[in-house]
Amino acid sequence: MSISTRGIVPSPNPPENLRLPGDPGRPLTLSRGVGRTARISGTLIAALWFTVPLLPLAFWSFADRWSFPSPVPTSWGLSGTMSALQQGGLSAFLHSLALGLAVAIIATPLGAVAARALSNGWAPFPRILTALLFAPVVLPPFAAAFGVNVLLLRAYVPPLVGLVLVLVVIAIPYTTFSMRVAYAAHDTRYEEEARTLGASKWQVLWTIQVPLLTPALARSAFLAFLVGWSDYLVTVIVGGGQVITLPLVTASAAAGTGNDAAVAILSLAAIIPPIVLLALLARSGRQHRGDRS
Questions:
Q1: CA dist list (Å): 132 to 16, 60, 114, 176
Q2: E strands, the chain, where?
């Protein structure tokens, strides 16, 4: 027995399961467009929220004179850029960049190892270890840095080495927490299957674990970089004035008078690397999701 479909005219209205509740004339698929519009609107609002406060800095960066009550600078020029360079802005920028990268390179794998041990139950006394790892976040920065600096001076540790060590200790809680969240969602069956096929521990690490955890490692490295890049207090105490970074130069320029243009240039320079890294992080995350899908 066959059923003929001849003469059956399809309904112009979508089925009931594809209609919005309370509005039988609109298909449910239209909600995707509404969600996309909401996401775009939210992104634009967030972009305006963060960029609008930077407009005065952008104006001051190229202002030779800005007299009240003018809404824009009354005289434009590059005196602020020249002043920032004369105060050591370029060398301080490079020092901060190198310091942030060094902290990220050291603290990221250490945080990953600690997170792996805590997530899999390999670490002895996990509660005590967790308390020790997160102690730099709980302790007052000034007291911790001052106390550690006394030990570093008595051990004749060079200021740069001591500064990197202290900042790595401060960054490890952030990298550990970020990687612990990643390991909680990590599927170890891929590693177990690779081991059954004869792969060694190092092969499993570099061909299975690291590629799957690349987004989490990138986020952890970004957080560790921010610790080294934006630090001021530890650099002043432990660095002992021998390590001049961008926050130190910016604070020194802001403490004076008549350096508004130079302070604006230095402040914008301090924002550029985190924004660039954040954009690269978002792009790599989208590519990773596309590759997995």
A1: 58, 44, 11, 12
A2: 19-20, 23-27, 63-65, 75-76
Q: Work out the pLDDT band at 101, boundaries 50, 70, 90.
A: very high
- Asked if residues 246 and 266 have their Cβ atoms less than 8 Å apart, the reply is yes
Ordered structural domains, the chain, with CATH: 90-244+271-292 (1.10.3720.10)
Q: 248-251 contacts: CB < 8 A, separation 24 or more?
A: 248/92, 249/87, 249/88, 249/89, 249/92
Kindly report, residue by residue over 173-226, the tens digit of the pLDDT: 999 999 988 888 887 788 888 888 888 888 888 888 888 888 899 999 999 999
The 10 Å Cβ neighbour count of residue 247 is 19
Distance of CA 203 to the CA centre of its chain: 29
Cis, peptide link before residue 211, omega less than 30° from 0: no
Average pLDDT in the chain: 80
pTM higher than 0.85, yes or no?
Answer: no
CB 244 within 8 A of CB 91: yes
Candidate ranges 34-38, 115-119, 142-146, 191-195; pick with highest mean pLDDT: 115-119
The three-point CA angle 64-70-76 to 5° equals: 25
* pLDDT above 70 coverage of the chain, percent: 84
Is residue 10 helix, strand or coil?
coil
DSSP letter at 156? T
* Residue where the block lists tokens 């004369």: 86
